[in-house]
Amino acid sequence: MAAIITPSEVPNYVPGAVTAASDNLGWNGVWLRGYRYGALDVVVPPVSDFTIVSYLRGATLMERRCEGAWTRTYCAPGDVSLLTRSQRSHWHWTEEIDVSHVNLSESLVSGICAEVTDRSIADVRLQDVVKTRDPIVTAAVAAITGEAQQQAMGSGLYVEAAATQLVVHLLRKYARVTFRERTGEGRLSPAQVRRLTDYIETRLHEQLNLETLAAVAGMGVWTFTSHFRESFGRTAHAYIIERRIDRARRLLVEGSLPIKEVASACGFADQAHMTRVFQVHLHTTPATLRG
């Protein structure tokens, strides 16, 4: 089997001019590269991450082969291609095109899948899709591309939200999931619970992800996911949202910080994000609570 490469190594096999990049932005599990390509015939080794290609400019004949026969179609702006992780692919196109590549890590996709299904995940595979029109995928890729180009305030949180929406949509429409057998998951120790609650409380204003929390507990991501739910009665994501809401509600009622500063202090992407969360969980708004 061919060696698996990372998304950053793809240009070694598919040369093109870089038009956008998330390099060194510190995003968790999400990698963005925009390219301008001439006509190419290339073989790409298996890539460690899931790949979404969004076509932005130029129409071209597109031929691709992964495990089976060649697929031949035309791709134009608004189309997307999907490629599952760890799969060798052969691509051939005939015209100059601009594209955005979004790569999603296996840990991000499987972690979100475990969250939404409340199951331990053995494997996730995407369908082999050379061309589809999907406005949700296109919009998510455009949002992530825009954040790489602008690097605006709260970019990391914004990308995390966009990537989560994208992954859930991919899982619903294009994925095949294999679950692990239930084996009576255990619980976190009291010391692990203390470490985790202290860590979360002191970093609610920061990005928090499963990989980091699992490392704090000294566990692998999948074991951590099941043990956390068994110990807390909810997923890590749900617990963090609860703690952010609780802190924000306290600051709004007892303090005088502007609402947008409360949102930032509690780890929300912005004031609008906090408002949406409040409406879903408390059936009210921050402004109403502030009085």
Summarize the structure.
By secondary structure, the chain is an alpha+beta fold.
Low-confidence stretches: none
Give the tally of structural domains. Answer: 2
CATH superfamily of the largest domain: Regulatory protein AraC
The whole-angstrom Rg is: 21 Å
CATH architecture of the largest domain: Sandwich
Beta-strand content bin? 15-25%
Helix content: 40-55%
Descriptive notes:
With 291 residues, the protein is an alpha+beta fold. The chain folds into two domains: 7-178, Sandwich (Jelly Rolls), CATH 2.60.120.280; 190-290, Arc Repressor Mutant, subunit A (Orthogonal Bundle). It is built from ten helices and twelve strands.
Key attributes of the depicted protein:
291 residues, alpha+beta, Jelly Rolls, Arc Repressor Mutant, subunit A, 2 domains, six-stranded antiparallel beta sheet, 12 strands, 42% helix
